[in-house]
Amino acid sequence: MKLLEEKIRQDGRVIGTEVLKVDNFLNHQIDPKLMQAMGNEFAQLFKGQQIDKVLTVESSGIAPAVFTALALDVPMVFARKKKSLTLSDENYTADVFSFTKQETNHIIVDKRFLTAGERILLIDDFLANGQAVEGMLEIARAASVDVVGVGIVIEKTFQKGRAILDEKGIHVESLARIAAFEDGQVIFAD
Ligand code: 5GP
């Protein structure tokens, strides 16, 4: 997606050889017009899939996921990372190792928000080693919902997440694909 690539070139900051900081439009401050355009793009890419719900993980997946859900006119559910007093005891859970934080998060979805047989689209901000998506897939399996595909805002093709999902035969669409970071510059894959 041209608009996103331009934004990454303009505002993204490369940290070392593996991490992109995009906290001024995606991970901390949010650019709502860009999020809306991305939501429309995901809705277009997964058109005709009869999606019932969008699922993501808090917090960075929420903005792109909610605009995707808006474009598809369906609800959006986000997996929580912390158990709160208001959360019921009837949950689906999975452990997700965070690539950027180097810690394991327990992700939680209330059973009331996923119904067996529903067709679910997974959305996340980044695809690196695939841990976050695998956690969502585990929850989807436990809930007996069908995952129609995975929408990723920024995929890093040099990490193993994409290969893992391809091996499972999952339909993955990424709005920007990064092949490498070289001398602090982003090298796009296509
Ligand atoms: P994975 O689970 O695929 O290894 O990593 C994806 C998760 O880690 C995303 O939800 C995202 O929050 C975080 N992440 C992975 N790589 C990056 C990166 O280069 N920059 C940022 N800002 N987050 C990343």
From TrEMBL:
GO molecular function, one term: xanthine phosphoribosyltransferase activity
Binding site for xanthine: 20, 27, 156
An example Gene Ontology CC term for this record: cytoplasm
UniProt catalytic activity: XMP + diphosphate = xanthine + 5-phospho-alpha-D-ribose 1-diphosphate
Amino acids binding 5-phospho-alpha-D-ribose 1-diphosphate: 128-132
Keyword Cytoplasm: yes
Pathway: Purine metabolism; XMP biosynthesis via salvage pathway; XMP from xanthine: step 1/1
Protein name, UniProt field: Xanthine phosphoribosyltransferase
Source organism of this protein record: Weissella diestrammenae
Gene this chain is encoded by: xpt
